[in-house]
Structures are given as structure tokens and as C-alpha cells.
Amino acid sequence: MPELRGNCTCVRVPVMRSHSESITVEFERPITPDEAREVLAAAPGVKVVDDPANLRYPMPLDTSDQDLVYVGRIRRDLSAPDGVNALTFFCCGDQIRKGAATNAVQIAERLL
After folding, report:
1. What does the buried/exposed string (b/e) look like for 33-42 if buried means 16 or more CB atoms within 10 Å of the residue's CB?
2. What local confidence, expressed as pLDDT, does residue 96 receive?
3. CA 103, CA 108: separation in Å to the nearest integer?
4. First to last CA, the chain
5. CA torsion sign, 74 to 50 to 22 to 1?
């Protein structure tokens, strides 16, 4: 079916620690994966690990016991109708060190 579009992310389980998410984001304007990498690399608390050719991408094992959230596998969302306003990426972060409580405190600190 040539009109069928989809994105796939394979995740091997189980993990001892750290949550992982496959995220798709739709934007108001076109954005390239390179533009997204640049923005994410400048974001506090984020580490871009995005080199699948050399087997470098976010893995839960690497994010345990730290506050950084690793982001990678940044690519166009092939299921989006126009194909240029949506991206898919994968992220991992320690759910205890960078869980809801820590995140809430960091957001409050930024607001103050």
C-alpha cells in the first residue's frame, strides 16, 4: 500500500531503571531534524545522543543515576501528511533523578 505511512521504534525490555519514550511532535512550520538537534542540544538538562550509524542513541542503561535526559533517533515523522512539520524522536531519563518531583522543582525555579 504505497499510501500507508508509519514510524517504528523498537525498544528491548526489561530495564532496571530509567523511563523511555518514543515521541512524535507536530509543528506549525516545517522543521528539519538538524534544526531540532540544534535546539535540543542547547536545552538545559538535555543531551543529544543521535548517531545510529555508530550505534549511538539514547539507552536507559546510560541515563541511570543522573539528571540528564538523553534524546536521539530524531527523524521526520513518515506518517505525517506533509512530512515536513512533524518529527519523531526517542528519549530516556532516570525516573527517580529526573522524575515528576524534580521536574516540578526545576520548572518552579525557572519561573521564579
Report:
1. eeebbeebee
2. 84
3. 9
4. 53
5. positive
Cell (9 digits) for 16: 532496571
Number of residues written out for the chain: 112
Residue 46, SS3? strand
| DSSP annotation string for 48-99 | E--BGGGTBS--HHHHTTSS-EEEEEEEE-TTSSSSSSEEEEEEEE-TTTTS
pLDDT digits (tens, 9 = 90+) for 5-64: 667 777 766 677 888 889 888 888 999 999 999 999 999 899 999 998 999 999 988 998
- What is the grid cell recorded at 35? 534544526
The sheet that has 19-26: what strands, in order across it?
19-26, 86-93, 69-76, 46-48
